């Protein structure tokens, strides 16, 4: 029987837990329909469970009726969302329940402060991810310069060269690769002619440097990435569990591939294939921040069944 190890920090982070608790509590308390704009968290099974509790998920804000009891997802929203909801008489303190993760709100505050202090802010993130869209609102909206890949330092250097701002700052979506963010900054610094991107502390007290970056990747993301790296280095195969749209889960899978271990990215135990585990003595399991414990347990049990 092979050894199965689950990464220390796998599954729900506190922001996701809180968002789900808010949605469930709101749905239980009211006799009317509860609406959620977009995926509350990026996990299909969790969404299905919440739908079974009577929660309605909509992708278009116009589908939310006037005065409807509404929950906003963990990823954060642009200010325009709040404005449109207000026009529908959906406001905080009345019928709007905001489940935005506090660590995402922190990034919004960082973006705003940098912006207000004369920085042209560049965002390391996934352009179409709801968190990046929400953060962009606090900068230049659709005109915010977003760099998606660690290898895209050339795009940042071209942007700096072709614009004429006094100061530039880099920030990151909370769920991006720690290694990728460092690589991007190091690559830029190796080619930048008139200075270097220096770290600006989260206290945001020193905002004088011409080039600065703020470490806005959240601790739960860092913990999951480092835990996955540890387990990948001592496993013959790693199973990564996460939602199809989960940015942080995809980064865990990318981390395994980068290390060179055989890895598979799945949403649930039904996708496991027995042949993956032939001649494998050490099996690692990790999961993104929006994966519930029961899904991790189901995967582990299924692997045991397949390998016994």
Given helix and strand content, the structural type is: alpha/beta
Kindly provide the name of the CATH class of the largest domain: Alpha Beta
Mean pLDDT value: 95
Number of domains in the coordinates? 3
CATH superfamily of the largest domain: 4-hydroxy-3-methylbut-2-enyl diphosphate reductase, catalytic domain
The amount of beta strand, in percent, is 15-25%
Main β-sheet, spatial strand arrangement:
7-6-8-10-9
Order of helices and strands: EHEHEEHEHEHEHEHEEHEHEEH
Helicity range of the residues? Answer: 40-55%
How many strand segments?
13
Distance between the termini: 6 Å
What characteristic shape results from the CA principal axes?
flat
Q: Which stretches are poorly predicted, pLDDT < 50 over at least 5 residues?
A: none
- Largest sheet descriptor: 5 strands, parallel
CATH topology name of the largest domain:
Cobalt-precorrin-4 Transmethylase, domain 1
**CATH-scheme architecture of the largest domain:** 3-Layer(aba) Sandwich
If you compute it from the alpha carbons, what radius of gyration comes out, rounded to the nearest whole angstrom?
Answer: 21 Å
Count every helix, treating DSSP H or I runs of 4 or more residues as helices. 10
């Amino acid at each position: 029987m092979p050894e199965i190890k689950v990464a220390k920090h796998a599954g729900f982070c506190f922001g996701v837990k809180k968002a789900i608790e808010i949605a469930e509590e709101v749905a239980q308390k009211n006799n009317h329909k509860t609406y959620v704009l977009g995926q509350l968290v990026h996990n299909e099974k969790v969404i299905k469970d919440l739908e079974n509790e009577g929660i309605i998920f909509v992708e278009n804000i116009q589908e939310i009726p006037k005065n409807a009891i509404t929950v906003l997802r963990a990823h954060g929203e642009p200010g325009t969302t709040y404005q449109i909801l207000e026009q529908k008489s959906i406001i905080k303190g009345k019928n709007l329940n905001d489940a935005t993760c506090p660590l995402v709100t922190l990034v919004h505050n960082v973006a705003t402060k940098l912006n207000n202090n004369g920085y042209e802010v560049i965002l390391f993130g996934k352009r179409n991810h709801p968190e990046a869209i929400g953060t962009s609102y606090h900068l230049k909206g659709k005109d915010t310069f977003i760099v998606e890949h660690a290898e895209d330092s050339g795009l940042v250097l071209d942007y700096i060269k072709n614009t004429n701002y006094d100061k530039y700052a880099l920030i990151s979506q909370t769920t991006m690769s720690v290694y990728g963010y460092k690589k991007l900054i190091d690559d830029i610094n190796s080619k930048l002619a008139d200075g270097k991107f220096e770290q600006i502390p989260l206290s945001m007290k020193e905002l004088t440097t011409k080039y600065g970056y703020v470490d806005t990747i959240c601790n739960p993301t860092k913990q999951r990435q480092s835990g996955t790296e540890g387990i990948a280095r001592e496993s013959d195969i790693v199973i990564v569990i996460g939602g199809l749209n989960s940015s942080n889960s995809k980064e865990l899978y990318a981390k395994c591939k980068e290390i060179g271990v055989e890895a598979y990215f799945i949403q649930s135990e039904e996708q496991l294939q027995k042949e993956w585990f032939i001649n494998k003595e050490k099996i690692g399991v990790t999961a993104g921040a929006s994966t519930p414990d029961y899904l991790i347990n189901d995967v582990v049990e299924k692997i045991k069944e397949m390998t016994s």
